[in-house]
User: Fold this.
Amino acid sequence: MNDIILLTIDFVKRQLKNAEGGHDWFHIERVWKNAEAISKGESCDAEIVALAALLHDIADAKFHGGDETVGPATARNWLVSNGYSETKLEHIIAIIQNVSFKGGSVARTHESIELDIVQDADRLDAIGAIGIARTFNYGGFKHRAIYDPEIEPNLNLSKEDYKASTAPTINHFYEKLLLLKDRMNTKTGKELALERHRFMESFLDQFYAEWNGLR
Ligand code: ADP
Ligand code: NI
Assistant:
């Protein structure tokens, strides 16, 4: 592994030391590993994929008063301070700016196979067993209800509504998690997403059955 990647691992671990459990170093590590696995089936710049995966949540807007510029700026300062080369740097920043879901209605401002890979890798960590754990952890962190049968999911959330949502955590499955399998970019990403999607569907079946005292 080259020096800038090793230095960046250390930087990200330090920056995310007190992060919420779903957005901590282990999330970054899983996304990085997912990205490496997806990259095997694609022709891409491995260094850009690794650095973008490692830096994609370095300062998530959710935890910085909604400011979407802090993450890209922190990543840029880090890379510049390490003398990182200009063209690759701009590509990495563009990936970080475009990776997030934000309700799914916001168009990308950059296209590349490296963005496809990192976005799929991040989305995989939002679904399946890990996705379920992260979602309830975030809901708890935000003092949200687990479920409220009276509050219906909203399937047409604008970016602003999505970010401002205070809905019960189960709603997030319908507002984001179950939508992701149809939005994967790469062949490997699609295959892995399908398996994780099915697991969430059976989790929800069991959840409602237990809620209604049927099991
Ligand atoms: P994006 O910005 O791409 O949607 P986020 O960082 O907002 O990604 O979401 C990452 C994960 O955080 C989600 O997959 C989910 O587990 C959790 N999360 C985010 N928003 C909510 C929410 N409103 N309710 C429950 N979990 C959430
Ligand atoms: Ni992420």
Q: What stands out?
A: The chain has a mean pLDDT of 95.
